[in-house]
Automatic annotation (TrEMBL):
CDD domains: McbC_SagB-like_oxidoreductase. GO terms for molecular function: oxidoreductase activity. Residues 69-253 form the Nitroreductase domain. It comes from the Bacteria. This is SagB/ThcOx family dehydrogenase.
Length: 265
């Protein structure tokens, strides 16, 4: 029986097939020497925007990791109470913060809380603040190297993001929405087209850390894969090509003793 037309032209199958590493063909690796990748590892910064400094958080002892993994759920019921700046700082630091430095030749290489293919760290975090004590509402960028927030754009974007995420109601009482964008070139410089797979895997690792750190702090977290890309990119002011939103998470105080719900829709 012939396959339906859409199955013959599946972009994902063509992409996956064409980005397989094969034994007889050397995987695409950049000819640029490792020393020069440093340029692709550059930290994104907005030097002319106002900064909000944050404490670098120390790890807390309890609860234990396995308990956190067992308790982790997608929480969609929030109370609407504010998060503290310290809670937000912990979420950012324990998902994308610098946790170690190692020497690689004559380079000192910063390593982060989440793993990343080639330690190239393509993911940037943009917290859109709805209700965090001491912070004005609006769009921020997490400057990883300096562990500060850069204030990009004031405003209440809850309604716009509610619309842009197909009216997912959990957004309405959450305290912050964190957009994960990817700067694809950082990873593609080394891995070529296959690097696109790695970028999305990196985002998944980072999102899991957001889930686990939220759980450890007694906060609720729900990741969002379904959103209107152009609207979200437009809000952040990224071009959607070299840098584009790939995943989002809403975080807030949990309503009552909500322990998670079935997916919406
Ligand atoms: C890639 C991805 C995208 C997701 N997108 C959404 C989403 O748009 N809305 C939502 O409510 N949950 C979303 N989720 C959460 C899943 O629905 C949830 O993980 C699943 O129902 C299992 O529940 P649990 O996380 O509580 O174990 C997403 C999860 C992943 C991994």
């Amino acid at each position: 029986m012939p396959l339906p037309e859409e199955d013959l032209f599946s972009i994902s199958e063509i992409y996956h097939e064409n980005t397989k590493d094969r034994k007889r063909v050397a995987p695409i690796m950049s000819k640029i020497p490792q020393q020069q990748w440093i340029w692709y590892r550059a930290f994104k910064k907005y030097p002319h925007k106002p900064r909000v400094t944050m404490e670098v958080p120390a790890p807390s002892a309890s609860p234990g990791l396995e308990e956190v993994i067992q308790r982790r759920r997608t929480i969609r019921e929030f109370s609407g109470e504010s998060l503290s700046l310290e809670e937000l700082a912990r979420l950012l630091y324990f998902s994308n913060g610098i946790t170690a430095k190692v020497r690689s030749g004559d380079i000192e290489l910063p390593l982060r809380a989440s793993p990343s293919a080639g330690a190239l760290y393509p993911i940037e975090l943009y917290p859109v603040v709805f209700s965090v004590t001491g912070l004005e509402e609006g769009v921020y960028h997490y400057n990883v190297e300096d562990h500060v927030l850069e204030f990009l754009r004031p405003g209440d974007y809850r309604e716009a993001l509610y619309e842009a995420s197909h009216r997912q109601e959990m957004l309405l009482l959450s305290s912050v929405l964190i957009v994960m964008t990817a700067i694809f070139g950082r990873t593609k410089i080394k891995y070529g087209e296959r690097g696109y797979r790695y970028v999305l895997l990196d985002a998944g690792h980072l999102a899991q850390n957001l889930y686990l750190e939220s759980t450890a702090q007694g906060l609720g977290c729900a990741t969002i894969g379904g959103f209107l890309d152009d609207e979200v990119n437009g809000l952040l002011g990224v071009d959607g090509l070299l840098e584009s939103a790939v995943y989002m998470a809403v975080i807030g105080k949990v309503l009552g003793n909500s322990r998670g719900t079935a997916p919406q829709g």
